[in-house]
Design goal:
This protein has twelve helices and 19 strands. It is an alpha/beta fold. It starts with 7 loop residues before the first strand and ends in a 5-residue tail after the last helix.
Amino acid sequence: MNDIKKPNILMLLADDMGAWAMGCSGNDDVQTPNLDALAEDGMRFENCFCGSPVCSPARASILTGTIPSAHGVHDWISQGNLPGQKFKGKPVPPQQYIAHLTAYTELLQQGGYTCALSGKWHLGDSMTPQKGFEKWYTIGQGGCWYFRPDIVENGQREVKTEYVTDLITENALHNIDWFSAHPEKPFYLSVHYTAPHSPWGRMQQKPEVWKRYRHTTYDSTPKCPRLHPQITKSAPLGPGPMRKYLLRGYYSAISAMDDGVGRIVERLKEKGLYDNTIIIFTSDNGMSMGHHGLFGKGNATYPPNMFDTSVKIPFIVCYPRAVPRGTVNSGLYSHYDIMSTLIDLLDLKGEVRQKLPGRSFAGLFRGEAETRTGSVVILGEYGISKMIRSSDYKLVLRDERFYNEFYDLRSDPEETRNLFGRPEYADRIAAMRRELEEFLDEYAQPLYRCEGMTITGAGQGMAFTLDKENAFNEDPMYLFPKRAERYIAQQKVQQKPEG
């Protein structure tokens, strides 16, 4: 039995999983019995948001507790992960994109924790353990085929033929066994799955899991009769019969991951570690699978979208010693809050080089009730698109090339009516704009802001410190260029200046 005073921490991180894609969140199609069990044994957060609706920026925000305009990762990282890579025809060395900031895993290590990574990193330099991680098992390129992952372990990179979700789970189980044999120190274990990120074809999934969905009707996701005019080529897509095929693959990937979560939780119980382990399940960003006529996340459109399906992520916290079982928290939370919470909860003393915008919710682990109401800044940032969201309203701001968005979520929770420019909302829009600008002024760093840059969702190839002017691929990859152009022009004409 683990009798240490400090709790162990297990971070389970999915890839491209919407908050809507769990049984416990009301989806009758997807099969997630183990995630549902975690929610039953802990607390599910209904309104938790990522820092940016795309992989690498979101992951950087989780680890450093700050915003893209402070850590400088503004798109998914395409190069700088491995030796010998090139970007725009020029060699790019491996880069540690968040080396200039403090990660909470560094504070945990300094506080006596053993930190281990099992799974996806995708923040540059995959070959080198960093940010306090002593055990390092990851994916070389960041993303991979499900049955051909390039695994980095012990300083070596090898392409495997096993199912990547199972490989990540097995490594996590190995780490738990090691922790159990060395109980003198608490542990932090990051299990970063690549699921349910595309590809979603049948040959990418385990046959026995694929079969689980042979009778599914897929009524819990939109039918998607027409693709959004601004949709890009960021993910496999298709209405009609293709929709069911893609959903079957997406849900199969989730269920295979859910199986792995069940094995990990069972191993914690077998080793007597479960009651003293804080388990967090979340995803790097959300995902649309037909919602709004989109398949993808923020870069499913250009300019990037900030729909709730892109920015709202699943978030479950299970800690039997303190967190009330079977509860649902409807307050507003952000991935930024994780680092502030761990510092508060564990009384971590190390130096933090960045200013943290997050608010601690450590009171939940002390049995204290917490309800977040009123004006709360929940900010999403992806290139030209910046979002602030309260419980009732959402404002998305862009520059003069594009249109802005404002939604009254009380009457329009599906975000179907853009009310930007409507005179009755002028004061509300102006107030939220000021709040967003003040937030950025306080927490952004000038070097790492991206004003005036074209970030299309096609990838970031180098850190700002290496070459800020050439950091991004600029092809927006529209699926329907003319339709997108007409739609953007139409939206701009319809909007009148507020006030």
